[in-house]
Amino acid sequence: SEHSFPTRRSSDLIDRARKRITLTSVLRDMLVFLDGYGSRRINAAYALGGAEGLESVLKEIYGIDFSGFLVVNFNAVRNAVDKVGGIDLSLSKDEIRLMNAYVNEQNRLVGDDPEKDVIRSYKGGVMHLNGNQALGYARNRYVGTDFHRTMRQRVVIEKCLSKLKRLNVLELGSLADSVLPEVYTDLTEKDVEIGRASCRERV
Q1: Local structure of 128: helix, strand or coil
Q2: Burial category of 123 from C-beta neighbours within 10 Å (exposed 0-12, middle 13-18, buried 19 and up)
């Protein structure tokens, strides 16, 4: 499912008083008890109950009082990275190889040339990735453990947030217009506008 990328695995914890966001990850293979289904992996909470179901389980386990949720698909991730001008990441040879495989798959899903955005060099090192490549990097589940995959996802988000601070008002608006159509949320229009206004104030 396109919606499975960050939603089943990550949660933003917002401390409004300190104006701080804590980014944490929930490993998808963690066993939990789901009413009516018994012991299941936690990603089943999303598959069976959607974002609301996953939110309920996380609240019960960790005592987190969520004020809302955002579900983003592959397009949202690609668009966000592209709108901030791409990100620089240090990649190993194996990460490049697996990232290319995911890029191939992503291209086929949207009807693009499978070789589009494939990195030809396998030397490794710091590389500038566009949205399609960064998505492939973040989806990699075969280099290292699942902890490494969640780490890669957090790195992509943190890199984007870091570059977000440098965007001007017009660029922030363009990013929002590109990403928001790909987002499913229980936040109201007013909530979203408050968030956009907050971004403008920081700039």
Answers
A1: strand
A2: exposed
